Inverse folding.
């Protein structure tokens, strides 16, 4: 009897094995998945290098726990120093020499623009790019490129919604970085206001400026009472401090790039930052409300074990953790069909995916015509110690 | 308060930053007849050292003094180790050495202390000098410190034997040697002093712009502009030039319509080129004539 | 203040062709180089070929810089500007679709010549360190100028411009990477040949005279102002052609592609290759592309520091650059042969 059962089991197993179609593109095999990445570890944007490091640490954890469907991740990350020609060279190296299956979380709009056409021509996924530029969600023209975070225009629109609802007579002033990121956010804000309100004063700055004090003074002189701060950490902090120095108390909206408590608000002065508004789509690591949250605990344990040098007050580490978890889910969904086409197909087929460190109520959704995985955010206010969520989760879809 | 006045005051405040930097640049130029492109990175590194000392609980003024002393020593060490062996190499090779120093310091700073911004305390507090935030106490303090450094350097160079010896060594090393001046020592001393001045500049600037490894990149250019405007041979001119650049840049940024804010760096470039064309020795510098 | 000599003593000879190296040796080395360059595309992977092509565009720009600094004695830390102008010119022209790719190269060169000449005019009044500063400021301001809103319709602003890669003509059995390599290499060869002839001509000797003794040159009747501005223009022309070719190779131009880091890199490449040597541009360009990569493999976190250390070692061991090293070696070999013949 036992012999017959064993034979039956064997046959069943063999049949199942035959039905399993294992398909591989370069970069994937029975034992390995090679993932490429381009990050600025040096140069003007090197503050974001921590994202690449966190991603690498997370893959260490994945490998320690057995890999994905039994395959280990080989994560190859190169520095592009935020220079587009260098990014292009690194992309070609990853695809042609290192033969990665796809490139994940390449960072920076100029770098991603440089490799955009090449990746699509070579039909290699440029997945979950680390920039919020709106142009990455264009499946018709660039089916191999997809972003992840809420794009900047969405964010701008959410601010616009908030202002229209709460300060319908505002005189709006905008401090913005004079590059694609700053202008993208500004566009979202303007589009979201839809003509009902206009921007009273715009003050661009360059990354080569020493301080933004002059711009802040100009905005105050223009009678602005709602201050929209579209600046990267250093300049955002300078603006917060200058506003306090001038003893000015506008309604202060701060963009997500600079909302880190440890990285921006503390240097600027926690008292000065009290009352500032922003939006979020993932949990702030310094918010005491999440202390007993299981997802937070997991993240904290991950940081302690695999990335002890990492800054646990920096939201970049949470961001990197969340996006890598999303990728892992995509790869799990791929099963044994590890072709580039299937990777993209699965990435474009995420329905109500919940990732622990995203805010409750925010899920990831994609489809072949919707390449914007996250489009929801929630407003929050800084109370002097941490960010407090206010209101409800808001939608801000482009084209709507 | 009138916008113009506010912008001028803000310009003076930023100008104080540039003036500090310009002073350090001119200092080393006087000592070694070269422009040190790595000046900013040396200052940043020094400021991080100070920050680290503060993190370990050292009281501010002790950390300040220790950093200045360490920077002095560091400047001398760099000169001895890196530039002394290449003393007779062509100018171009020297410039490459400056570039190498820049790359090494920048990378080292980022590696040791990473790239997130940090606040750096000001010994003058965070209050404002005159009521409603027109002039911050720190800006006023910074101006004061720059002025004090300037005065000390002036006294040193004009009224001490050592200062005279340094000037002689820089102006005409061969003749100076003949008179018994240890030119090598003077050059090393010059490097040390420049590094020390740079450290002070860094510790004054960091409270305003926040401390991070790339802090000095942009400021260096404006510092050069100020030094050129005022005259590379005149420390006083450099300081004045720094203030001037700060004010010009702020006013141009605020009052040129439409693209003013986008043009700040271009304006600094314009200042440099214009001054160099019209009066290369700068407003306060001394022009050098060569006899054929 | 005593000014030090601008360049290493070795570059007193013209065109980098030292009398110590017999002409037949020179011919052989050039022939070998051409053969190696022709075989390369079929021996290496497309990715490496791409890297070499980019290195060649750098080499062309470095050659231009060398004409200005090495042979004419005018410092420039701002050649990234002309490289950028050439690249953008090519990008805009190709994007407009009205001109064949290959015409964009000479046009970019001409545009840059004009800009270089114009910048050379105020540069006449500047000397040594002051000129270095002025050109450095130019290099730093270039990305900002490229981003200006008024010129955005042409330059694409911060987003930059995507450039279509030229396809090889149908009758040529090469793929796009190889074709682009040959176009770049051929252009580089032509420009090098032109440079050598230029330096060996009367104008070249005038340029060198201006470098070594400007006052004596003027006393001899050389129109110093004219030659200096022409040198600036020509040097910018070379850099512009390098830039145009790089736009086609990298297929993208953006303000962030042309920062002062590139200007410094070109300068370093010139010194490493050998100031005052035409062929030195080649090792200079290769250094600029490959050494930062090597530094990154040594240590990702300290890549910049490793690069700096390599730079210091190179300067210490080869103060006259690679070309100087080669010359020294050749001289020793010739001397050895001579002594063998004698004893």
């Amino acid at each position: 009897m036992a012999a017959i059962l064993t034979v039956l089991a064997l046959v069943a197993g063999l049949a199942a094995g035959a039905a399993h179609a294992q398909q591989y593109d370069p970069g994937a095999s029975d034992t390995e998945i090679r993932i490429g990445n381009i990050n600025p570890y040096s140069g003007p944007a090197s503050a974001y290098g921590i994202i690449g490091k966190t991603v690498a640490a997370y893959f260490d954890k994945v490998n320690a726990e057995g890999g994905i469907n039994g395959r280990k991740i080989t994560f190859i990350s190169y520095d592009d120093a935020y220079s587009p020609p260098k990014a292009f060279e690194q992309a070609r190296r990853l695809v042609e020499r290192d033969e990665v299956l796809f490139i994940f979380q390449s960072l920076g709009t100029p770098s991603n623009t440089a490799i955009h056409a090449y990746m699509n021509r070579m039909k290699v996924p440029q997945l979950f790019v680390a920039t919020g530029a709106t142009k990455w969600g264009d499946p018709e023209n660039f089916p191999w490129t997809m972003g992840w975070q809420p794009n900047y225009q969405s964010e701008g629109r959410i601010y616009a919604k908030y202002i229209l609802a709460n300060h319908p007579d505002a005189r709006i002033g905008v401090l913005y970085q004079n590059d694609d990121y700053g202008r993208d956010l500004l566009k979202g804000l303007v589009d979201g206001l839809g003509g009902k309100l206009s921007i009273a004063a715009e003050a661009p700055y360059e990354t080569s400026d020493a301080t933004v004090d002059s711009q802040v003074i100009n905005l105050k002189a223009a009678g602005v009472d709602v201050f929209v701060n579209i600046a990267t950490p250093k300049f955002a902090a300078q603006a917060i401090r200058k506003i306090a120095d001038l003893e000015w108390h506008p309604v202060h909206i701060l963009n997500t790039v600079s909302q880190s408590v440890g990285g921006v608000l503390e240097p600027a002065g926690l008292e000065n930052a009290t009352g500032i508004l922003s939006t979020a789509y993932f949990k702030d690591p310094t918010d005491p409300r999440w202390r007993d949250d299981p997802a937070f605990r997991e993240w904290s344990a991950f940081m302690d074990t695999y990335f002890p040098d990492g800054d646990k007050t920096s939201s970049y580490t949470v961001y990197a953790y969340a996006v890598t978890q999303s990728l892992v889910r995509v790869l799990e969904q791929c099963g044994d069909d590890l072709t580039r086409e299937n990777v993209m197909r699965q990435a474009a087929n995420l329905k109500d995916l919940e990732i622990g460190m995203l805010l409750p109520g925010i899920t990831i959704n994609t489809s072949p015509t919707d390449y914007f995985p996250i489009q929801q955010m929630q407003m929050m206010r800084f109370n002097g110690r941490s960010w407090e969520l206010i209101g409800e989760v808001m939608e801000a879809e482009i084209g709507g | 308060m009138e916008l113009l006045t506010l912008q001028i005051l803000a310009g003076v405040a930023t100008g104080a930053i540039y003036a500090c930097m310009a002073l350090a640049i001119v200092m080393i130029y006087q000592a070694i007849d070269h422009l040190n492109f790595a000046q900013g990175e040396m200052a940043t590194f020094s400021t991080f050292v100070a920050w680290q000392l503060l993190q370990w609980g050292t009281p501010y003024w002790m950390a300040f003094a220790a950093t200045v002393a360490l920077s002095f020593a560091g400047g001398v060490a760099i000169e001895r180790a890196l530039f002394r062996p290449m003393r007779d190499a062509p100018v171009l090779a020297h410039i490459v050495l400056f570039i190498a120093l820049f790359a090494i310091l920048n990378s080292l700073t980022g590696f040791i202390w990473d790239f997130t911004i940090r606040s750096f305390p000001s010994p003058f507090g965070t209050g404002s000098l005159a009521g409603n935030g027109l002039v911050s106490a720190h800006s006023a303090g910074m101006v004061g410190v720059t002025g004090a450094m300037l005065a000390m350097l002036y006294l040193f160079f004009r009224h001490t034997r050592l200062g005279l010896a340094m000037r002689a060594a820089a102006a005409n090393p061969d003749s100076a040697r003949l008179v018994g001046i240890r030119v090598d020592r003077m050059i090393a001393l010059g490097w040390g002093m420049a590094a020390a001045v740079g450290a002070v500049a860094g510790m004054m600037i960091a409270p305003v712009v926040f401390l991070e490894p790339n802090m000095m990149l942009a400021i260096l250019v404006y510092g050069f502009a100020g030094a050129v405007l005022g005259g590379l041979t005149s420390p006083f001119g450099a300081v004045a030039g720094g203030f001037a650049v700060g004010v010009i840049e702020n006013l141009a940024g605020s009052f040129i319509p439409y693209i003013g804010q986008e043009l700040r760096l271009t304006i600094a470039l314009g200042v440099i080129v214009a001054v160099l064309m019209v009066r290369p020795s700068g407003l306060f510098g001394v022009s050098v004539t060569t006899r054929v | 203040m005593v000014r030090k000599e601008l360049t290493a003593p070795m570059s007193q000879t013209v065109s980098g062709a030292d009398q110590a190296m017999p002409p037949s040796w020179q011919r052989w080395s050039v022939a070998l180089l051409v053969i190696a360059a022709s075989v390369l595309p079929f021996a290496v992977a497309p990715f490496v070929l791409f890297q070499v092509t980019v290195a060649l565009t750098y080499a062309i720009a470095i050659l231009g810089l060398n004409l200005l600094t090495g042979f004419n004695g005018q410092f420039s830390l701002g050649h990234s500007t002309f490289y950028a102008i050439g690249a953008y010119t090519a990008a805009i022209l190709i994007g407009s679709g009205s001109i064949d790719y290959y015409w964009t190269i000479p046009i970019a060169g001409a545009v840059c010549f004009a800009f270089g000449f114009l910048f050379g005019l105020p540069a006449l009044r500047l000397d040594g360190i002051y000129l270095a500063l002025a050109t450095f400021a130019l290099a730093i301001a270039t990305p900002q100028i490229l981003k200006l809103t008024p010129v955005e319709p042409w330059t694409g602003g911060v987003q930059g411009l995507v450039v279509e890669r030229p396809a090889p003509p149908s009758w040529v059995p090469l793929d796009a990477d190889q074709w682009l390599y040959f176009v770049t290499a051929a252009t580089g060869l032509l420009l090098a040949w032109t440079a050598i002839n230029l330096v060996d001509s009367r104008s070249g000797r005038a340029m060198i005279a201006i470098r070594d003794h400007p006052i004596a040159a003027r006393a001899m009747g050389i129109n110093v102002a004219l030659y200096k501005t022409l040198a600036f223009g020509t040097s910018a022309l070379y850099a512009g052609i390098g830039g145009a070719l790089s736009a086609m190779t990298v297929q993208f131009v953006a303000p962030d592609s042309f920062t002062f880091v590139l200007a410094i890199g070109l300068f370093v490449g010139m010194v490493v290759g050998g100031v005052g040597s035409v062929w030195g541009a080649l090792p200079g360009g290769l250094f600029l592309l490959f050494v930062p990569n090597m530094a990154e493999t040594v240590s990702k976190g300290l890549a910049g520091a490793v690069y700096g250390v390599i730079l210091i070692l190179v300067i210490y061991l080869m103060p006259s650059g690679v070309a100087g090293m080669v010359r020294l070696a050749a001289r020793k070999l010739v001397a050895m042969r001579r002594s063998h013949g004698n004893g």
